[in-house]
Amino acid sequence: MSDIIYTICCYDNTKKEFENLLFNTTILSIKEYAKRHNYELKIINYIPTEIEKLIKDNIGNVKHAFKAWTTKFWIINDFNNSKYENMIYLDCDMYFKDYNSDPFNLPYKYPLLARKKTKPIYKKIDPHISIPYHYSAGLIILNKAHKFNIEYNYITDLWNKNRAFLREEYAISHFIAKHN
Asked: In the beta sheet, which residues pair with residue 174?
């Protein structure tokens, strides 16, 4: 297998019932898609120790959701250091509607993320950079030929600049605007 699908399904103890519901619905859809296309599937149902330490050392106590969002950067690094050629990251509350489509055969040049016009908040959180698009991080498609690697120190520098960058979509949008 040269392709992998990642998903994070990791909720705090107050939402375990919801997490179980996802494992019995959307995660089944993701498993079926991976099986049909012979993709490896990696379900992250924990916060990696590296992310726990990164957040503790730089921010302190935050909501569980911020830890899960930051885990997406861990996934990108995991993919970059893996044997796989292509990856899909999909939020665990999303599912594949068409089991026959293959996103790795799409003619794209750059990392694929859903984008829309920028949000006004970007001017407030970093007025020194023009961020024309807001990138959603619920679906990320990367390949080794056209990957991006967001180093953890880049993320922590953004956190120190403005806590709004705890939201992974803001950090990814900033990174793409700065490095595109």
From this structure: none
Q: What angle do CA 10, 40, 11 make, to 5 degrees?
A: 5
Query: Which is nearest to 8 in space by CA: 61, 63, 65?
Result: 65
Read off the tokens for 2: 């040269």
pTM here? 0.82
pLDDT of 84 > 90? The answer is yes
Element holding 143 (H helix, E strand):
strand 133-143
Gap between the Cα atoms of 75 and 22, Å rounded: 20
pLDDT tens readout for residues 109-152: 445 566 677 767 777 788 888 888 888 788 888 888 766 667 88
Closest CA to 2 of 59, 82, 106: 82
Q: How far is CA 35 from CA 39, 40, 133, 174, in A?
A: 6, 8, 34, 35
Structure tokens at 96: 């594949």
**Residue 112: helix, strand or coil by DSSP?**
strand
- Per DSSP, what are the bridge partners of residue 3? 86
